[in-house]
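User: Here's a chain of 547 residues. Predict its fold as tokens.
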Amino acid sequence: MRLYYLAASSDQTGRLVFQLPDRKIDVQFRKGNPEHVSSTHAEDSLREFLRAQKLVTAEQLTHAEAVLQSFGNDLVGALFGLGILNPTTAFARLAEQAMGVLAKALLAEHGSFTFQGSSLALAKVMPLGNRWGVLTDVVRRISAPEIKRRMNGVMAAPFFKSEGRVALKDLPLTPQETRASTHLDGARTLEQLLKDYPQDGDNLLRLVFLFRELELLAFRDGRERPEPSGQAPEPMRAPPKPIRAPPEPVRPAVEPARPPVTEVLRSAKSEPARPPPPTLSSVTKATPTPARAAAPVHERAAPVTQQKSPEPPRAQTPASAQAEMDELRAKASHLQDENYFQLLGVSEKADAGAIKLAYIRLAKLYHPDTLSLNSSPEVEKLKAEIFTAVGEAYRVLADDNSRANYLEILKSGGSEELLPLAQVLLAEETFQRGCNLVKAKRFGEAVKILDEAIRGNPDEGEFYAWRGYAKFFSMEDKREGQTQAQKDLQLALQKNKLCAPAHYFLGHIAKLGGDKKVALKHFRQAVEIKPDFIDAKREVRLLTSKK
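Assistant: Prediction complete.
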């Protein structure tokens, strides 16, 4: 993952080759985005994958292989060129196979690597997607126990937010992940966060793991993740200095200048002393060295003694403590009456820089790190409430687009009708719980949970689609159940004409009622809207194969 991050963050074009104990995996980058993945292992064979997925027959493969030279020796290109594979329907599955192979490379803990700055022939290119979207998808494939194993050394270590080469806003996080990211306040360890927010446990684990790899988080105890042995990459820079100001929820609009891209991934074993922070370039064109056992590289981290601990807060006198309490109570009582500009104490013409400075000034007053040893529970609660509101205001105003939208809402007099971000995220989380209950066939419970999600965000069409499907199975009177389900499913399509799940559920209900013609129509519409809708495609195949 570290190697991938270095290549992607510096817009590299070239081949990153992983020599693992049982296979060699080749990842092709073009301007930082992964465009082709291949493996020498039989279980990763594209030919066998195509046959297993029943996308092609043995005869079609033989035909394509006979004319490979006409298509640049690229099997997929030949299948597309001969019309055997339809790019629209096959691309999603081919990308999924490539993602599986890439995950094996990025999660490997033993082996070596080389990087060659050369581009691939266009015939062999099959883009996997946005570089950071691909990486977050790989992280989502890792089980929670596996992440805990990899994070074992830092579970109880304090951490703080840092400046990596990728902005937080560039990561395609789900609403649940975005909500979980707001808990990373720098005041608690990962171990404490898992206890405080058990409902977000898996997302917190994955986010901290991902953010550490992207240098968006740094651990104060100086311990770093062990690098794979072989040709391990150098750290991108010296350990960040401890910060006194609280962490920021998003990256500032004006980024610091980056060093020139002159060096990509290089071997650590040839550098006995810690070098200056490297930039990116090609690694080596030598033949990969044999794989060998991994060993943690603890000497990369700066010892804790190099970081100066902040001074302990001074004890407050009773008079100053009471004054602070009164001030906090007054501030908290006005939170609901102030818009985001008033909350941060800036004018509506303030730019991103002024907004950032205002946030830092308020964070120094209300961040949990500012609590003294003898702070009362009420002070702690009030500061947490105020700091949460300040963080929400900063998240909206720091981004130019969201600030402009917010200004339009204020000018139209609709500030009270603005749906809070926290409410949207909570509704999305509730919806996911409802979906899980539907999949577990606990339909009665699912209806209640989905009702709650709709109350939180009544404009989301997909919420109604899932509730309608749950209603159909939760009612003993199936005729009444079908009527209620149809109302919700049609409402879902009114709110979102491109709601593929609504068509899929309509098709499923029609199929159960014996109307295969209507069922097939809805399944096909679901696939037309969402070409990678595997369940709907399977239903189309089943219904058409019986004719």
